[in-house]
């Protein structure tokens, strides 16, 4: 047992010596080892689920995901913004008529937009797509499901 | 990662361990290893044989890529004109000082309140010695550099999940990890556990190397003593006089260091783009564009939003709108070097071929956040003996970087109070600027309790809200790079692209500068060919 423990540690140290950069890179794609911290955790993560996990979004529903992720670019009122380029308004956006299109953009990204859905679960993507498609003047009744998101990934 | 599956610790075990370290630090680290950055291939500027022969070049964007192109092409005899969206030169090579106003997308406006001499670089903030092209232009243009304190053994590593949230000095984690690992390796060698790969003679050498590397004592142990204290620091350091006898410090246990995950940060400054010597311009990163301005500033039209780029058989025309007056106009030249970030360029009408157009649309732009905080005094120096360097944390602020200049000076100073990527950066960006600053103060106070009493003011830049980049830098996936990179960099008729997005050094100025040099060299060859 003692020998095994030593070997374990040796493996670790050698792996570190061999490629600490690779180890860190792998850590990014490794599933979060610890369970997400509770809302009152030491991070002081927000009650809406923000600031809990550095590598994935922890917001529990579509509205919270919109406010804490999407609104960074599309703005809290979903009217987008205009600078050297623009962020499209999601308010009254006819492209949202296609639920599959909305899922695709969230998961895969589009042009400069990262695929933020990669940091969300299938259910979170479905939630935020459903939220946007039924708010900000959008009234698309066909709800998407997590399973639908899974087929797009 | 070359893990031997025959060894008892599974890859999953290791990943689990590493995962516990994870967090914003992992993001930061992946960022630092991004692009497998090596020493720059810069070998000097193109020679422009044959001269410009009266040719003209339109350069779009006055960041370091556009400024490099303008400077070198003008020197080669080209007639150059530069169009720039902002009311200043530099693009992301940008410094915020007291009195500067930044209005982000959505309309929130911040006027920086820093005292004279204090600043923050929202974009690039350091120049590694092996970024030869950037170093070249700093030297050629007379940009004064000073050392950037990348690695400070007395700064902290902080984890909310280890040591009760108490920050640990880097020197403790680094020395204790190396010491304990070296001691374990010694045991393995002595037990002949490595006999199949290390000969007896090499094993003897290895033992001495491990004793040296790990600061082991004469019995190959990593324990409290002179050797370990000279690495990790003493409880009471040696001095002079009657009561000068030093008191050794007690190393942390191997288990506590290992389980803390803090070893993840030992390698933070081992990547080649973070090696010492590493520098910053004295007074702010925008000293670089300011130096370029003395050479080509007169060729730049500021406040100019390009709305369309059209090439024909004899030249390239850019249509623009003056953002101050609303006046519309056009600029035309024989050739065009376009450095507009792809996040913006993908929205601008431009008649290039399908392959370049596809490449322009294939690169998402990363979220990133920086917060600059001004404090009444340098408490990190005065109370904690931290002179420059970086404290790493798993809190959403990611890191705290102390100023690498004016050490020991009285009065106020600014530090980088947050710098991060990934989910936290999106979540920070969604907040109003004042709230981002407030969060950075709140979280930073967990590491430095002095924060709340000493805080004066702050400024926060969420890069997805920056009107002229809509993100921090272009994030190439391996797949996108394989499919599109060469198409992006090829010359298309009379148009070439440059910028960090047209490089293998994303987010670094060296990528922008070397891409510009490559582009203008090939442009000149094409121009010569007629």
Topology:
The complex is a heterodimer of chains A (153) and B (530).
Chain A: H1 2-29, H2 62-74, E1 81-82, E2 86-87, H3 99-108, H4 122-133, H5 146-152
Antiparallel strand pairs in A: 1-2
Helix pairs in contact in A: 2-4, 3-4, 4-5
Chain B: H1 11-21, H2 23-32, E1 56-60, H3 64-75, E2 79-83, E3 96-97, E4 101-103, E5 109-111, E6 119-120, E7 127-128, H4 132-141, E8 145-147, E9 156-158, E10 168-169, H5 170-190, H6 200-214, H7 226-232, H8 254-260, E11 278-281, H9 287-296, E12 300-301, E13 304-311, E14 316-322, E15 328-333, E16 335-338, H10 342-345, E17 349-350, H11 354-360, E18 369-375, H12 379-382, E19 389-393, E20 399-402, E21 413-420, H13 422-429, H14 433-444, H15 451-454, E22 455-462, H16 478-489, E23 495-497, H17 509-529
Parallel strand pairs in B: 1-2, 1-16, 2-12, 9-19, 13-17, 16-23
Antiparallel strand pairs in B: 3-6, 4-5, 7-11, 8-11, 9-10, 13-14, 14-15, 18-21, 18-22, 19-20
Helix pairs in contact in B: 3-9, 3-17, 5-6, 11-16
* Stretches with pLDDT under 50, minimum 5 residues of chain A: 1-42
Strand count, sense and barrel status of the largest sheet of chain B are: 5 strands, parallel
Largest sheet of chain A: 2 strands, antiparallel
- The coarse silhouette of chain A is globular
For this structure, what is the CATH class of the largest domain in chain B? Alpha Beta
The SSE string of chain A, one letter per element, is HHEEHHH
Strand fraction of chain B = 15-25%
In percent, how helical is the residue content of chain A?
40-55%
Separate helix tally of chain A: 5
Q: How many separate helices of chain B?
A: 17
**Arrangement of strands in the largest sheet of chain A:** 1-2
Major interchain interface with per-chain residue totals? A-B, 63 and 84 residues
The average pLDDT of chain B is 93
Number of domains of chain B: 3
CATH topology description of the domain at 59-152 in chain A: Cytochrome Bc1 Complex, Chain D, domain 2
- Record field, number of beta strands of chain A: 2
CATH topology of the largest domain in chain B: FAD/NAD(P)-binding domain
Strand order of the largest sheet of chain B: 12-2-1-16-23
Could you state the CATH homologous superfamily of the domain at 59-152 in chain A? Answer: Cytochrome c-like domain
